[in-house]
Amino acid sequence: MLRIAVPNKGSLSGPAADMLHEAGYQQRRESKELRIVDPVNEVEFFYLRPRDIAIYVSSGRLDIGITGRDLLIDSGASAEPILPLGFARSTFRFASKPGAANTIADLKGKTVATSYEGIVAKHLADKGIDASVVHLDGAVETAIELGVAEVIADVVETGTSLRNAGLEVFGEPIMKSEAIVIRRTGADVDEAAEPKVQQFLRRLQGVLVARTYVMMDYDCRVEQLEKAVALTPGLESPTVSPLHNEGWVAVRAMVPAKEAQRIMDDLYDIGARAILTTAIHACRL
What we know:
By secondary structure, the chain is of the alpha/beta class. It is built from nine helices and 15 strands. It catalyses: 1-(5-phospho-beta-D-ribosyl)-ATP + diphosphate = 5-phospho-alpha-D-ribose 1-diphosphate + ATP.
């Protein structure tokens, strides 16, 4: 069976489970379950701390895993991303009391508190900045108030928690992160496991496409078909079928979900009618 590591808690857990469910895989029913077997799909899921997943995958004990790009880099494990998943996006930034620092050069001689010591230490070293890094688990916003550090480095989504703590971000982002599928670096291809790995990746890619696109159907006059097709080119090309009423055709094409309303307006303006969109639950490209 294909052995896959999945986050057992935190911001990665719920979205990862939802995506796996949409991809047709069985998921655990209770949060206490640490391992389940999906015999139909020949997959075994292990629910682990997100920070540990890269370590398990790099050891070769598990074939692949879902974790955050930030957690992979921070771990220093010999694993590499093979598919970005588009959720749990975040930006890693420095923050301090207003006026305490404006650029990364201002960190020289200062102490930086973070839960991501590996990322921060490497970033400072790459920039040639001599600063101390203190590792803290959990929220690090109070580190400055309690005198543990002058600066913190943390994941920033909206920045609300930092502002509530009287802090502000400064300098360029350290890195941007999102959920990814990882595999051991330089892993020897197992002839038995590789087809299952590729099938797993295709299923997740199908979910990503299904979430990004909608199916659009509409009717239009033949003389307006070229203008309509220019608005809805589809992936290869749209499907066009003649209608019973002479001079009319039915068109079907996949369009980006975020542009669907604008496209419907444009189609209506050139004379298309009976325009509708439907969700895509699964696909293979």
